[in-house]
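Give me the fold.
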Amino acid sequence: MSLVRRSPRRGVAGGGAALAAVAVALMQLFFLVPPTSAQQSNGTSRVVPTEGYCSMYGICAHRSDGKVLNCWNATKAVKPDTLFSTRIQSLCPTITGDVCCTVDQFDTLHQQVQQAIPFLVGCPACLRNFLNLFCEMSCSPNQSLFINVTSVKQVNNTMTVNGIDYYVTSNYGEELYNSCKDVKFGTLNTRAMDFLGGGAKTYKEWLAFLGRQANLDQIGSPYLITFPSDIGGSSGVKPLNATIYSCGDPSLGCSCGDCPSSSVCTGSLLPLLNKETSCSIKMGSLKAKCLDFSLVVVYLVLLCIFLLWAFLYRTRERTGISSQAKPLKNAEDMFQPSNNGKVPDNSEQMSEASLFPVQSAHPSVIQTYMSTFFRKHGIFVTKHPLLVLSVSLLVPTLLCVGLIRFKVETRPEKLWVSSGSQAADEKQYFDSHLAPFYRIEQLVLATSAFGGSEAPAIVNDNNMKLLFQIQKKIDDLRTNYSGSTVSLADICLKPLGTDCATQSVLQYFQMDTKKYDDLSIDHAKFCFQHYTSEEKCLSTFQSPIDPSTILGGFLGNNFTEASAFVITYPVNNKVETTGQENGKAVAWERAYVNLVKEEILPMVLAHNLTLSFSSESSVQDELYRESTADAITVVISYIVMFAYISFTLGDRPSRLLSLFVSSKVLLGLSGVVLVMLSVLGSMGFFSAIGVKSTLIIMEVIPFLVLAVGVDNMCILVHAVKRQPDGLDLEERVSTALVEVGPSITLASLAEVLAFAVSAINPMPATRVFSMFAALAVLLDFLLQVSAFVALIVLDFKRAQDGRIDCVPCVRLKSSTIASDDRGHQGLSLLARYMKDVHGPILGYRAVKFIVIAVFVGFSFASIALSTRLQPGLEQQIVLPRDSYLQDYFDDLATYMKVGPPLYFVVKNFNYSSASEHTNQICSINQCNSNSLLNEIAKQSLSPETSYIAKPAASWLDDFLIWMSPEAFGCCRKFVDGRYCPPDDQPPCCQHVQDSGSCSASGACNNCTTCFLQSDLHNGRPSTTQFKEKLPWFLDALPSSDCSKGGKGAYSTSLDLSGYQSGIIQASAFRTYHTPLNKQSDYVKSMRAARDFSSKMSKDLQMQIFPYSVFYIFFEQYLGVWKMAIMNICVCLGTVFAVCFIVTSSLWASTIILIVLAMIVLDLMGVMAILGIQLNAIAVVNLVMSIGIAVEFCVHITHAFMIGIGNRESRARRALSTMGASVFSGITLTKLVGVIVLHFAKSEVFVVYYFQMYLALVLIGFLHGLIFLPVVLSLCGPPPKVAKPLEQSQPSASSE
């Protein structure tokens, strides 16, 4: 069963802290927000564009925080000294000769671009183009040709720049954007453009984002920068059209993940996963699947063959050919219809044409031995009923002692996951080497639509204040666990070790009501669009909050139109060994659910909003509640069946007083007790050996065993009652056992072996069910032929003595009973119906043709329908109808815009210099074009088939960039070799209280980069360098000066145990599935991820597997068809083998096999029509259906084989004897019991027990009592007579 929720991002913290001044700081590479005392000029005079002249030069003023403002200065470009020129060349290689920047300006440029480098260094072409854009604007000697100062401000009597036009050609802007648009920012599974360009989709949007003017006290450019491409009337202007490097340039090669359009990427060895295609045939406006068309053709051909045979036989009959069969009259008479085509009333004189005339055959040796055994057994039981009853009850009673160790397994992973399953092994590997996926607690608040209109937006002041009230209640929630107080802060996930990683719109205000009062709702709307670039939008755990993870019910990026808030509380999870590791979390979760129900829900409803919610333990708690919710319904179902059993076993006397004697209430009750005793004995035996029971066993096996047991009870009682009254009780019982004992044994043995063989199934739920069912049916059979026969003897003796049923100590007058008995011997009403109505109707030739055509046709249709069965088990079905999770899962499907996290785990990553693993995995420059991360990025471009939504977050990429000398603000060291953090982190700077700023302390002035470019080999670290710096990286906090720190973002992404050997045992690369709304989406996404990993593992010669939290529950559906077919085939094969061995009739065994297969096929067809999904519960029901279907078929077939006369008469007799027992014992009994299940509270009972059981009973009845008799009357096997035919007769047909 599968029960899964989509989760928010795991490990998102860390990268966001770098956004304090990263993206927008790039818009102010040399400027900062002007002081509030500046006075703005009304305009500026136009500087004449001239080569060698500047538009801006020098630093004219400083802000109060020490940051500089540039001068409006149309001076001639200045020649730098040699040292300055060298420094400029190191950052801006296109700037040569004179420059339009001072040393201070260049230092400011150099300091601020270091914030952009970690974002772009993985794609050198993009980085070079991006730096050139600002290098040209800052230091180009021809600055005045493409930059015009349009506005100035006076600061301290100095004119500072307030606005410029930066002219670039459209081709330059387009190529600049194209070189950077696909560059990844792996830490947050997104593109760098989301941070550096506000998610721009065109170059104009990007340049507009870079040039926007920030308000006071906000990060951004202190002046407006416009990027016109049309020079208009600006005489002398030459828009910048410098060289742009393509991201596919081999000399500055970007990876395929950063540049999918690169020529080296188009030849990737791994193609995109293709959609599944099916063969179809189109005829005019009609379109049909090839399978459907083929089945129709085959069916029509078979129908024509059947019609042709009927016509030829009719013609042969008219010409008198049938007279040749007269010598066989005593054994197998040919059909001679009357002139009106009706079947004669006298069944003894009827005959029916056979498809193959055959002789009578001898009974098998096994049947002979069984007949002998049952005759002796019947005599013994009749003589010693109490002894037999006592001994037979002893064994199951002793087995019931094992129930003291009875336990029920409710953990889904122990029920639906095979012990050797791939998903279970992968989950265990992931949990033990990395970390268990965190627990999820969620709230979904939504507005309601009225009158068919769209739901109104939820983002307003009242709802935000309500959200703060809810948050306060959750923060204040306390519960006790083992004497200690537990709050959310004690158990929540804290990526950076301080604040909970709560995913909420309130994070835009750092969960602070005071900040909300100061900033208002408009700040949240501002953050929806700028969450990646504004420091004030960062969460308390220093990560940007993607609005698509906290809002729902919006289209595109219209976040302000959202109609739902999604609040997620990630909670730490631990590997379960004793079951108590997560005790604190579970205790808090249950208190949280109670809080929401009792306090938060009324608050939300009072605001005309809806609320759904869930905790990690909710599903298991609700499943436990569901297991007890329908106990009363099941008990009522069994009581109704018991009442009917008691009614049907008794006689129908003419006198009321005789009813008290002839009724079989006590016998029926005793029979039901035997059935329950067999079930309890089976459960006791397996409990004693340590096998846990399941809810399926307690819900299904009593139904199964009761079906088999009641059928046997009816057959036995009716067989005894059919014996002549002149026989004594001993003879009647023994003769009845000889008549029906072999068929009961055959059916029970077939069922027991079928279930026993099905126990090879690896899935625990179906394996345990098969084991319990096999033993229960075996015990039930043994009790039926021993204890129940003894009970029949005692009951008949009671009736003969005139004692009242249920009160045998009271006796009626013998004269009353005797007179009633003399008047009411003969066939029961049901038996007379079968003989006088049902049988004759089936004897009509037209009826037989219709029956064959309809049943075979529906079987063919069921084959086509069964291919449409969808694997899965909807979460809503397995939960009680009144569960609060019903609304939660509905809201998830409606509002969630993010799919479950997906991890690609690499085993035994060899990072040594001699290995190629690094380049086979990474996705920055110099990585292989078909590397793992490049291929993941490629698959994300086709999410409809790959189900991968985004490129993967790569600790390896970020580590290599962090170590790179180009990212000079990241990997640094003190002179003594210790790690030196970025300049904006302590001890390099001191935080100023109340301002949040950080002032330089001078402690890190002597820090240098960890490596020079010459220290690396082709940009890659040596084994020793990798080994030494990896712990530094994982402990490095991300910040504005270096966004690539690994702490928080990658703390659980790799296993460092034993990594000093050069091997990292496990490393994970996180991405996300697309939103998965249907069970089929989960199954297809898992299959796609596994196919991708398998191909990558084979291509790269590495061990790679995908992992997502729901895989362990959905793996069963990848092979559910194989499992279902295997179980069905094994059961059918076992039944066929048993029937053949016992009956020695290949003919009869084949007919039984075909009818059983048709019943199963038709049941699967009904499942498809009703939309019932294929899963373990359905497979259990299909296996069980074979067991019950055996009861419909074997008894009828056996009665037909031991009958005397032609096929038609034997079919009639089988119907009038066994047909009546089967109809009353299974069909009617189960109908009255199944109907009660319709009123169950759990949808799973209604779908998988009421609907499937009802379909099974009806389909079994139709096939066993309509289709099978028709088939037997046409081509049934020969009778099994006691004496061989004379040698002079022709030999019987081979069977």
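DSSP finds 45 helices and 26 strands in the chain.
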